[in-house]
Amino acid sequence: MSVQPLLDCRDLRVSFPGRGWRAGRIEVLKGVSLRIRPGETVGLVGESGSGKTTVGRAILGLAPVTGGSITFEGADLTRQAARERRRGANALQAVFQDPYSSLNPAMTIADILTEPLLGRGSSRAGGRERVRELLDRVGLPADAGSRLAREFSGGQRQRIAIARALALQPKLIICDEPTSALDLTTQARVLDLLLEIQEATGCAYLFITHDLAVVRRMSHRIAVLLHGEIVEEGDARQICQEPRHPYTRTLQMAAPVADPARQRERRLARQRLARGQLAGDHQ
Question: Which of 31, 196, 234, 260 has its CA 20 to 30 A from that of 114?
Fold first, then answer.
């Protein structure tokens, strides 16, 4: 018996007004279909400008959906009023690329983490206890709650952002480039933390990134986005080891390797592939 998807995006379209009073609308997403099952991680990978962040924002209600549907836990989000979406937002949370800009610099960490709990109706005492649990879950000391966001490193701020996303025990977390602003060592620690959280809680992730190596480590399945369209989708191992689409192969070759000679070979192969694609486009 197949498991019903937790999230089901069908033919998702998003467009924005063009610049200038005579300009038409620009379609950023051109019919994206994507499914995520409970407890699953689906990686969404593509270069800057491919539309991958817009997919996450559309799911969160932060970008205007002009076509298609987004079904979450059986409810069509695209047909819900803003008030209905807010009521159901507990099960859908996000971790963004820049942890500092997403944390209120004037509030203590305890206040930041308690705010969504109070909004759900928790008592202050219950909220404080939950904050201690969250800080422990993401590997931060208990006294971190009394400090401000600026007192923490980038990796620690991202742990705080993850703790805030976990506060309401979501079923799906949209992770939009959550490690791209971090150094490699800190990046690895945050990825390990996300995997540990998924194992402990059973939450699902939509993991948005430009890095095929990172998405391979995190994902069960991967979808590759190019110019607002999914050009390849499949099992993470197949996408990373035997990509079928030329664009996916280009992304694979762009991933850095430690050997300078292999890195040079991959760069030359990527350039040859790009020239071949360009020649094909002009035929």
Answer: 196
